Structure formats: C-alpha cells, structure tokens
Amino acid sequence: MKTSSKLFATAFLAAALSGAALAQSAVDPAIKAAIDARHSNMHLFAFNLGLLGGMAQGKIDYDAEAATKAAANLVALSHLDTSRYWPEGSDTAIEGSHALPAIWTDKADFDAKWAALGTATEAMAAAAGTGVDGLKAALGGVGGACADCHKTYRARLN
Asked: Where are the alpha helices (DSSP H) in 26-106?
C-alpha cells in the first residue's frame, strides 16, 4: 500500500508539473516577448542607475563624463515608446511578470507615472555632469519616480 501511494504521489506531481509546463508554453509569444522587452529595459535602467548611485554614495569615484553618459542613457530609455511592452494579459498571471493588473485598470495614471520618470531623467541629465552634489540631488527624483510607479504597479519581490 505504501509503494502504491508513493507511485500515485509521484505520478500526480509529474502530471501537475507537466501541466504547469504546458500552461507556461501556452503563453502567447507576443506577450512573452513584451515581458522580456520590458524586463530588458528595466535591467538597462538598473545598470545605469547602479553607476550613478555608486558615484552618489562614494562607492565609485565621480566621473562627470561617465555620469553624463549614464544619465543620457536613462533619458533615452525613459523616452522609448513602451506601448507594446504592456499588452493586456501580461500581468502577474504569467510566470516571471511582476506587473500588477492595476496597470490596465488605471492606464492613465500608469502613463503619467512613466512620464514623470521621463521628466526626472531629464533633470538627472542636466545635473549629472555638474558634480557629485548635483548628481545626488537629481538621483532622488529618479528614485522617487521609480518607487512611485513600482509601489502601485509592480508586485513585491521576495
């Protein structure tokens, strides 16, 4: 009896995992591509913010040219047409997506928060090459814009 219970449990687990794999493979390729694209964009934000934040914290020597380039990258990233990044149905129901459904129920606010990020990155670009104090001041605006959107529209990461 013990062996048959183990076999049943193993078979059930295998079936469940297969079902999950099939469900995941059934994701519309366009939705998967959109999620991948927005993740890539966010990784590029983090890459550039990492340099600027390191300079602001004194962990990386301040370099006006490098700060200016990283800030220009943030401006470019925040002004991309991201409309195809957010197709309806690409929320947390899809494994790997941290987008909350609220994005689509309050799209105007989401778009306003994205626009605020663009404004903050422009201020960063104006200040980044002027010295570490200007960088620190502008970094707060960018961080605040990121946090404002993530607080409302991104599922918490563990």
From this structure: 29-56, 64-78, 102-105
The residue assigned the tokens 């957010």 is 86
In whole angstroms, give the CA distance from residue 156 to residue 142: 19
Which pair of tokens denotes residue 3? 């062996």
Q: What's the distance, Cα to Cα, between the start and end of the chain in Å? A: 40
Q: Is 116 exposed, middle or buried (0-12, 13-18, 19+ CB in 10 A)?
A: middle
CA–CA gap between residue 128 and residue 56 (Å, rounded): 10
Distance between CA 78 and CA 71 in Å, rounded?
A: 11
Please give the single-letter amino acid code of residue 121: T
Q: What's the pTM?
A: 0.81
Give CA angle at 70 (64, 75), nearest 5°: 120
pLDDT in tens, 24-59: 558 899 999 999 999 999 999 999 999 999 999 999
Q: How far apart are CA 138 and CA 129, in angstroms?
A: 11
- CB-based contact 82:35 (threshold 8 Å): no
Task: Dump pLDDT digits (tens) for 82-101.
Answer: 999 999 999 999 999 999 99
